[in-house]
Amino acid sequence: MSIWKGVNFTHRFSELPSTFFTYVAPQPLDSMRWVVWNGDLAQQFGLPKHASGELLNVFAGQTDFAPFAPLAMKYAGHQFGVYNPDLGDGRGLLLAEMQHQDGTWFDIHLKGAGLTPYSRMGDGRAVLRSTIREYLCSEAMAGLGIPTTRALGMVDSNTPVYREKMEYGALLIRMAETHIRFGHFEHFFYTNQLGEQKLLADKVIEWHFPECLEAEQPYTVMFERIVERTAVMIAYWQAYGFAHGVMNTDNMSILGQTFDYGPFGFLDDYDPSYICNHSDYQGRYAFDQQPRVALWNLSALAHALSPMVAREDLEAALGQFEVRLSQKFSKLMRAKLGLHTKVDEDGRLFEGMFELLNRNKTDYTRFFRELSNLDTRDSQVVIDLFTDREAATVWLDLYLARCELEVDGCGHPVTAEQRCGQMRQINPKYILRNYLAQLAIDKAEDGDFSEVERLAEILKHPYNDQPEFDDYANLPPEWGKKMEISCSS
Ligand code: AMP
Ligand code: MG
User: Fold this and answer.
1) How many domains, the chain?
2) pLDDT tens digits for 13-39?
3) Domain containing 353: what range?
4) What is the pTM for the complete model shown?
5) Is there an atom of ligand 1 within 6 Å of 89 CB?
6) Which of 113, 167, 345, 433 could bridge across to 26 with cysteines, CB 3.0–4.6 Å?
7) Distance (Å, rounded) from C-alpha 143 to C-alpha 136?
C-alpha cells in the first residue's frame, strides 16, 4: 500500500503572484542518509512512524513528487536594527503544505537545500551541527509547550561545506503553520508594492486569522493578533529562560512561534544579561532585552502596515504588547511557584527571588524544579543551590509561609503534594542545555546519531521524572557554561 495514502497536501503559497517567490529545485547532496525521522510527529500527518528510502527521496527533494513545488520565498527585514532589502529564502525551500490530523495545514520547508536567487554571498547550505541544534531545540520547545516551529526529520550527507572548518551539508525538514515573517510585509512596503502587501494580508487573514473577516477593520485586528501572539511567545521565553539570539524581523513569525534557531541558549546560571550570540557585541539580543526588542520588531511591522492601518490603531495595538506580556509572564511565574491566588506581598516575594537568583547565579531550571519537589524532599536541597544560604533560607521560609495561604477554587487549602504535583508540570526537569546539544553533535559528527535520538526522546517529556536519564538533568560542567556558540550555520 502506498505510504502516501491518507496524507493530504496543498500548496497555497504557490498560488500567489510570482513577485512573492521563485521556483527553485533543491540541489542534491552526496550520499544522503537519515539522522533522525520524527516518527511521532510524522504519524500526526498520517506518515509512517519509521524512516525509509522513499521518505528520504521525497522529503530531501531527490525525486519529482507531484504535490511538491519547491519555491524560495522573498522577504526582507531588519537585522540588528538595520534594514536589509535583500533577504529571502537563501538556503530554504517551501515544498508544499501537509495536513495535520487536527485539520491544521503545516508548511513543509527544507533548510539547506542549495542556492536560490536570495542566497547573496552564501552557499545555500546548512551544516550538521546547526541542523541538529535546530532539530533538538524546536522539538524541546514543543515538549515544553512553548509556541514553536517543528522538525519532521534531519538528513546528513558527504557533501563538504566550508565554515570555520570543513563540515558536511545537512538538511532540516521544518514544519510550521506558516513561514510568513514580519519581513514579508516589510519587503512589500519598502518596495512600494502595496497591492501585493494587501494581498498578503488578505491571505494571512484567510489562512491564519479567519475571525478577522468579521471585524470592521480586519487589518487592524490582524495586527492586534500578531502583537498578542508575539507577547505570549516572549512571556514563555522569559519564564523558561530561553534566549533566541537573533531576533531580526526576518526571524519573527507572524504567528508568534519561536522561529529560526541559531545561537540560542537556555539560561544555566540565572543571569539576565546573558548574551547567547557570540557575534552580538552590543548585547542587543541579550536575554533581558528580548521584550524590548520584540516591541521594536512589532513597531517595524506596524510601520510597514501603515498604508493599511490607521496610525492610532497601530499605536493602540502596540500599547497592548506590554500589558499582554506581563499578564502572561505573571501567570506563568505564579504557576512556576504554585501560587495561583494573589496576596499583596507577592510582588516582594517575586522581587526577592529574582534578586537572590541573580546575586547567587543560581541555576534557573534546577531552582524551580527543586522547589517543585519540596513535597518529598528536604528544603536544604533548595538552600544548597545558593552561596548565600542565609538569605536563601529567609526567602524560602517566606515562600513556604506564603504557600500555606494558597487555596483551591473551592476555598480548600492546597496541600504541598497538590502544589508540587502541579508545579512539576510547568518546571521542567530536562532542558536542552548547550553542552548536552554539543555532546550529541560531537558523536553525530563521528557518524553516531544515537545521542541525538536519545536527547530528542528525553526532551519530548521534559516534565516527567525519567530516572534512567537522571544524568541529563545534571548541572552543566564548567566548560558547558562557557560555550560560545558560533553564528555560522
Ligand atoms: P539567518 O541568519 O539564518 O536567519 O539568515 C538570514 C538570511 O541569510 C536569510 O535570507 C537566509 O536565507 C540567508 N542565509 C543564511 N545562511 C545562508 C547560506 N549558507 N546560504 C545562503 N543564504 C543564507
Ligand atoms: Mg532567518
Assistant:
1) 2
2) 999 999 999 999 999 999 999 999 999
3) 338-423
4) 0.98
5) yes
6) 113
7) 10
